[in-house]
Every structure is written in C-alpha cells, then in structure tokens.
Amino acid sequence: MVSVDAKKKELIGDFKNAGREWHPQGQPVKVRSKDFVDQHLGKGIPYGVYDITANNGWVSVGIDHDTAQFASESLRRWWQQMGSRVYPKAKELLVTADAGGSNGYRIRLWKVALQELADAIGLRISVCHFPPGPSKWNKIEHRMFCHITENWRGQPLVSRAVIVNLIGNTKTRTGLTINAELDENAYPTGIKVSDAELAAVRIKRAKFYGDWNYTILPRG
Fold first, then answer.
1. Is residue 97 part of a domain?
2. 13 within a domain of the structure (yes/no)
3. What is the rounded distance in angstroms from the CA atom of residue 99 to the CA atom of residue 85?
4. Is residue 139 part of a domain?
5. Residue ranges making up the domain that contains 143
6. What is the pTM of this model?
7. In this structure, is residue 25 part of a structural domain?
C-alpha cells in the first residue's frame, strides 16, 4: 500500500528559501531579490511515492510537466527500484491518491497510464481517491513531504542535483528513508484520450463510489 502525490513545484536557482540555517557570522548566503523563473534551470517537480508499511519513500524530480504519465512513471520507478525488492510475491498494489491533480479520478490519461503500468509490472493496481476535503490526510503529506520541507528549509535550491540530494538525504528518528532520482523525460500536456482508448482499460469499479475506488487489471 502506497500513498502518492506531487509536492509543490520549486524554483531552481539562487532564490530565497524560507527557514533558517546556521552560517558563520557575517557570511550569509546571497540570493536574488526577485523570484522570477530562471529560463535555463526552470522548476523542479517532486512526485512522491510513500510506502506506508515500510516507512520509506521514492521521489522522482521532474523538470517538464506534472502529468498523469509522469505520476505513473514515478510509480513504475518506485516499484522497480524499491517495491519489488520488498514485496517480491505481491500480486496487487493499493494506491491512495488525492481526487485532483495529475492523478485525479477524472483524468482519463491517469487510467490509461495505470493500465500500461499494470501490464508492465503484472500487478493489479487498486486506487482509492480521497475526497477533496480530507485529501490533506493522505499519509504522504504528513509522513514524508513535511520532513523533506524541513530538511531543505533555509537552503537555496541552486541546482537539480541539490534538490535530489536534499530529498535523498532526508531521514527521521522513526526510520523514514527516501530515495530520489531526477526524471529528465518530457511529459507533454494536452494529450487527449479517446473513448476507444478508455474503453480498452480493464477497470473494475467498486460498489462503493466506483468513480473514486477502482482496480486496473493487467491485460494478458
């Protein structure tokens, strides 16, 4: 069982980052006074996968767009790098997600991308979406993302490598560990999913709010 979500996009460059960090007196880190997007460095888009049982996580740091394909690719990377090693006999993956965003329950491309993922890894993928109000209780928010934010507080995110390293070095006394990786793939927006493509998805909806609770079955 994993909890997934996208953290807010972060400007990459020598920009102010809220918080405090100790430095020798009279040697503060200089940052820009205006936080306009650096056209060369752009933004970092952290998408996280938090393993609720093992208390560890995976974060893909994208540099293009937060799309359903990016979310699905982050899940795939977590499974290949971490999940399959911890749960080699697993037959089903349960994913808890917000109702909106790139993994929203209304996003057709999300379901198509999950079908491709289910076919690739051979697992039934069950998804439970939080309603808009209680989505803040998605476990990843207060068990992983909050610690990432605390770890890089006060440090300018001057490069993609800095973001990945700060995320990957986040640990807690309760045993949380995180792996992070840069995802340099392009994820174009505006992809349309036809009725035929959606109909090809092997989806089994739950009796209780089937639009929010469903399972994607592998094909073949």
1. yes
2. yes
3. 29
4. yes
5. 2-18+31-216
6. 0.91
7. no
Tokens of 138: 């998605």
Task: List, as one string, the DSSP characters of the chain.
Answer: -EEEEEPPPEE-SS---SS-----TT-PPP--SS-PPPTTT-EEEEEEEEETTTTEEEEEEESS---HHHHHHHHHHHIIIIIHHH-TT--EEEEEE-SSGGG-TT-HHHHHHHHHHHHHHT-EEEEEEPPTTGGGG-HHIIIIIHHHHHHTTT----SHHHHHHHHHT-B-TT--EEEEEEE-----S-----HHHHHTS-EEE-SSSTTTEEEEPPP-
Distances (CA, A) of 133 to 5, 57, 99, 139: 15, 24, 9, 14
Dist CA 69 CA 53 (whole Å): 25
CA distance 90 to 106: 28
CA 158 to chain centre: 21
Q: What is the CATH number of the domain that holds 170?
A: 3.30.420.10
**How many domains is the chain partitioned into structurally?**
1
Residue located via tokens 């020598």: 14
Per-residue pLDDT of the chain (220 residues; tens, 9 = 90+): 999 999 989 888 887 777 666 657 766 677 676 677 777 788 999 999 999 999 999 999 999 999 999 999 999 999 999 999 999 999 999 999 999 999 999 999 999 999 999 999 999 999 999 988 776 789 999 999 999 999 887 788 889 999 999 999 999 999 999 999 999 999 999 999 999 999 999 999 999 999 999 999 999 7
